[in-house]
Amino acid sequence: MQKNKLLENMKNRNYTALAPMAGITDLPFRITCKRCGADVVYTEMISAKALYYKNEKSIKMLRTTDEECPCVVQLFGSEADVMSSAVESYINNSDFAGIDINMGCPVPKVVKSGEGSALMRTPEKAYDIVRAVKDVSGLPLSVKIRSGWNENEINAVEFSCLMQKAGADLIIVHPRTREQFFSGHSDWSIIKEIKDSIDIPLIASGDITSPETAEDILRLTDADGIMIGRAAMGNPWIFSQIKQYKKDGCYAKPSADEIKQQIKIHLDMALADCIERYAIANMRKHIFWYTKGLPDSNKIRNQISSAESRKEILDILDITS
Ligand SMILES: Cc1cc2nc3c(=O)[nH]c(=O)nc-3n(C[C@H](O)[C@H](O)[C@H](O)COP(=O)(O)O)c2cc1C
């Protein structure tokens, strides 16, 4: 069921996805974004090697529910046999709608092991990974890449063609180099170049900060869909705002009350997901993002940093339970 929905979304130009974000796109946040209109949501990146060695924390990250359907699981790794084995053991019989392979993570710990964006420097290895996963799984398979390693090694176009040849069903590109990390602006012209060179769908990621920029990137790149990362942090409504803007040319912003109620709903999902101490620690950053721009945001943020229970948080927000 999930699988069909995903493929359907891929065919339409309506594909607005929540980007995979380590430490952020856990189950409660993914459900939040889904309720706010995201067509597809992506998990945080999960180590195939850790799954292979039955790491409990990584296995726990694989939880998914009907409500977030369709959800795509993102895996990272550098060994084709380990990746395909993790897919066979944990993904094929799961409720995930697709598999994404991380070929864009710039973090030193990851690239040192030849994973993430390092794979863009070893295209033959990347090819083998895609082939190996396709050989064992019928799920739609995407590859998420950057523009290249550095400004002298921009290879996103050739790399995407190779991934298509290897069997990828979809390319997702965040067009910054690995060396850029998150600095500067992503180069949307590369997205257009890739789109003109491949036959499979392409999703654009990078610096989509509003419904207006969402329209811009689709118009300028001809991408089949878009993926929102940082702009959804504290503003999951961006997904419904994009839809409304497309339809009506304008969009509503949530009121302070709606924002506070949303925090409560998100907090309760986080509390249902793990023990209170961890849930509150994890929610602090979300509450900081949600409250950005509220008239009493400084006061709320100061108090939230030392809040330790649900009741304290609701009291600070001045909402009843
Ligand atoms: C905190 C953070 C964590 C991220 N984690 C991942 C990840 O696990 N996998 C991945 O492919 N990209 C990851 N990204 C990159 C995003 O998916 C996205 O491509 C990038 O942030 C550009 O989009 P944006 O400008 O909408 O944020 C991460 C980005 C941020 C800010």
Description:
This protein is an alpha/beta fold. It has 2 domains: 2-248, Alpha-Beta Barrel (TIM Barrel), CATH 3.20.20; 256-317, Non-ribosomal Peptide Synthetase Peptidyl Carrier Protein, Chain A (Orthogonal Bundle), CATH 1.10.1200. Helices cover 47% and strands 15% of the residues. The chain contains 15 helices and 8 strands. The chain has helices spanning 2-11, 27-35, 48-52, 56-60, 80-91, 108-111, 123-136, 156-166, 188-195, 211-221, 238-248, 256-273, 276-291, 297-304, 310-317; strands spanning 15-18, 40-47, 71-76, 98-103, 141-148, 170-177, 202-205, 225-228. It has an 8-stranded parallel β-barrel, surrounded by 6 helices. Strand 5, helix 8 (156-166) and strand 6 (170-177) form a beta-alpha-beta unit. The chain binds flavin mononucleotide. Flavin mononucleotide binds at residues 19-22, 24, 44-45, 74, 102, 104-105, 144, 174, 205-208, 228-231.
Concise summary:
With 321 residues, this protein is an alpha/beta fold. 47% of the residues lie in helices and 15% in strands. It has two domains: 247 residues, Aldolase class I (TIM Barrel, Alpha-Beta Barrel); 62 residues, Non-ribosomal Peptide Synthetase Peptidyl Carrier Protein, Chain A, CATH 1.10.1200.
Main traits of this protein?
alpha/beta; Non-ribosomal Peptide Synthetase Peptidyl Carrier Protein, Chain A; 8 strands; globular; 321 residues; TIM Barrel; eight-stranded parallel beta barrel; binds flavin mononucleotide
Question: What is the element layout, followed by pairings?
Answer:
Elements: H1 2-11, E1 15-18, H2 27-35, E2 40-47, H3 48-52, H4 56-60, E3 71-76, H5 80-91, E4 98-103, H6 108-111, H7 123-136, E5 141-148, H8 156-166, E6 170-177, H9 188-195, E7 202-205, H10 211-221, E8 225-228, H11 238-248, H12 256-273, H13 276-291, H14 297-304, H15 310-317
Parallel strand pairs: 1-2, 1-8, 2-3, 3-4, 4-5, 5-6, 6-7, 7-8
Helix pairs in contact: 2-12, 5-7, 7-8, 10-11, 12-13, 13-14
The structure holds flavin mononucleotide.
